[in-house]
Structures are given as C-alpha cells and as structure tokens.
Amino acid sequence: MKAKDYREQVAARLGTATQATFAAPTTPEPPVVAWRAALASLSSPSSSADNRREALQLLQSGTFLEREFDPVRAEYVDALRRSTSDPSEDVRRYALGVLMSQKDDFARSRLVEGLQGTAAALLPPAAALSLLARDDHASIGAVANQILKSNTDPAVRMQAVRVLARDPSSVQGLEEILHNKDEFREVRRAGAVALKNLDPDRFVQSATTILNDENEFPDIKSTVGGALELDGIVPNVTRPGP
Questions:
Q1: How many H-runs (helices) and E-runs (strands) does the chain carry?
Q2: Among 48, 95, 158, 224, which is disulfide-ready with 83 (CB 3.0 to 4.6 Å)?
Q3: Long-range contacts of 3-9 (CB under 8 A, 24+ apart)
Q4: Is pLDDT at 6 greater than 80 in this prediction?
Q5: Hey, what long-range contacts does 161-165 have (CB within 8 A, 24 or more apart)?
Q6: How many Cα atoms sit within 13 Å of 122 on the Cβ side?
Q7: What distance in Å separates the CA atoms of residue 32 and residue 204, rounded to the nearest whole number?
C-alpha cells in the first residue's frame, strides 16, 4: 500500500472515530478537530478509562499523518506523559508503550524508579521490564541485574534476562544463568537467547558444553541445540560409549 493511500485511510478512520466517540458534527471535519477532541477527552474528569484509551489510540493513529499532526504533536507527548499516572493500568500501559517505543527519557525514568522502589510502580515488575527491554540505555542493564539479585518470580526474572540482551557487559552473567541448573528453566532459555544475541561465539561454547553434559535437562539441550541448528552449526558433541 502506498503511503498516500495509508494516510487517507487513517484520516478516514479519524473522522469516523471522532463522530462516534467524541460526538463531532455529521459533516466531515479536518483531522485536527478529531485530535483536539481526543486531547479534551483525556483532560475531562468525566471520561471513562475506555474513552481515554480510545483517545490515545486515535492520537497515535494521527502520528502517521506526519505534517498534518505537527500542530498537536507536543500536546500529544504531554498527554502521554500525564497518562503514565492514569488510574487505569491499561491506559498507563498503553501510554508507556508508546513513549518507550520513542525512547522517551521521562517514561524510562518512571519505570526504573518504580522497579527500584524510589517511586510508586506504574506497572507490575514483569510488564515494566518488558517495556524497558525495548531500550538500550546504559542504566537499564544495572536495573535488570538488581532485579535478578532480589526477585524470585520466574516471569520477572525472565523479563530481566531479556533486558540484559541489550547490555554487552552482561555476557558473563548470562553465561552463568544459562549454566545454572538451579535457575528456573524458562529463565535459562531466555538467557540462551540473550547470550546468542550478545556474543554468538560464547553462546556456541556454552551450548556445546551443555550438549555434552549427560546430566543436563533435555529441554535446555533442545533449546541450545535448536539455536545452533538454525545457524547451521554442528557442535562437537561427544557420543556416550557403548
């Protein structure tokens, strides 16, 4: 689909959504009218959480119209940042997701502060780490390592490991996680993926060691073996004697 055709579709959607959600007049309106109505809905005490979420989605759709959206772009960013404190977790999650895709410093700081306990958490730890995993900011790896030292929830630990996939200083720590048989196996599998992403050569060495370990869990062997196979690598595996 051509960019021009896509912009026209988005503009049509904006007009429809404005009439249905924000009670715009029946005559077609410029897209900016829909965006102003959405911004007003976000600020209205009477707006429901569903309406606030729809307003954010409507505004996010408008960003594809590039120059047409410029008059309200700064207001939209401000609205997103305010929405990180919305009473609805669903609205907070959406706003933070958009901001983190833009590598927004404000959103990053708020998520990190929540994980560190220096401010109210905006999202549960696993969800916060999942969003932070999109960012390669230097401070994120340190936060993930702190979580691994203090949190025993496997879902949280798995997300922390995924964050480390963007941190080159974490290769040794990821190797330790991959080889730790006391670690949750889903966390070890995430560690395998992260290590392969950061240092393919070290991953091959670790995978070969695991495949040669008669006492290793079969699913861990399957994970590392499958990763090597995808890359066309044949590991040096010692076959057991008769």
A1: 13, 0
A2: 95
A3: 6/64, 7/64, 7/65, 7/66
A4: no
A5: 161/187, 161/190, 161/191, 161/194, 162/129, 162/130, 162/133, 162/190, 162/193, 162/194, 163/129, 163/132, 163/133, 164/194, 164/198, 165/133, 165/193, 165/194, 165/197, 165/198
A6: 28
A7: 54
Question: What pLDDT does residue 26 have?
Answer: 56
- Residue 170 DSSP SS3: helix
Which pTM value belongs to this model?
0.78
Domains along the sequence of the chain with CATH: 1-102 (no CATH), 108-242 (1.25.10.10)
Helix (H, G, I), strand (E, B) or coil at 23: coil
Q: How far is CA 114 from the centre of its chain?
A: 16
Q: What is the pLDDT of residues 7-44, one digit of tens each?
A: 555 555 555 544 444 554 555 678 999 999 999 999 99
For residue range 198-237, what is the model confidence (pLDDT) as tens digits? 999 999 999 999 999 999 999 999 999 999 999 898 887 7
Whole-number Å distance between alpha carbons of 242 and 233: 26
